[in-house]
Design a protein that fits this description.
This protein is an alpha+beta fold. It has 5 helices and 5 strands. A hairpin with a 2-residue loop joins β2 and β3. The N and C termini lie far apart (42 Å).
Length: 146
């Protein structure tokens, strides 16, 4: 089991089956191109691999802003649905927790003051997970379609 950054096209594509479980609109044929485009804007892709298969994936960026200083923002955090179901039966692995802890350490090592993410209001299981990881609900996110 290892966690690494997806840097090669092969590694990026390896993340697609898991990422597409959260981002249903993604197309495999355009995935590498989209990730590469976002990488130009600071996006990074980390994945936890077990037996040469990605089982948890996180897309993230490091930002600096007046309100928060330097922070790591998680765009995407997803664990393979099948692995989540298996984990409930045999709770020996916590892939999401391991990947989140890796992201926290990555943020610390890069001088970030905190880590944050947004989560859809309907994602109750994700909210339970974040709260169990001692994350706090610190704001509401508002948006408008343009």
């Amino acid at each position: 089991m290892s966690i690494q950054l997806g840097e090669s096209d092969f590694q990026i594509l390896k993340c697609f089956p898991v990422m597409s479980q959260l981002r249903l609109h993604l197309e495999q044929a355009k995935f590498i191109e989209q990730v590469r485009y976002q990488m130009k804007e600071g996006y990074q892709l980390a994945f936890l691999e077990v037996e040469e298969q990605a089982v948890a994936v996180a897309g993230f960026r490091i930002y600096t802003c007046l309100a928060s200083g330097k922070f790591l923002y998680i765009d995407d955090l997803v664990v393979d649905q099948l692995k989540r179901c298996l984990r409930r039966a045999t709770p020996t692995h916590s892939y999401g927790k391991q990947l989140l802890q890796w992201l926290i350490e990555y943020a610390r090592n890069h001088g970030c003051e905190h880590l944050s993410l947004d989560s859809g209001v309907q994602r109750f299981a994700a909210h339970r997970f974040y709260l169990m990881q001692r994350m706090n609900i610190t704001s509401h996110h508002f948006s408008i379609e343009l």
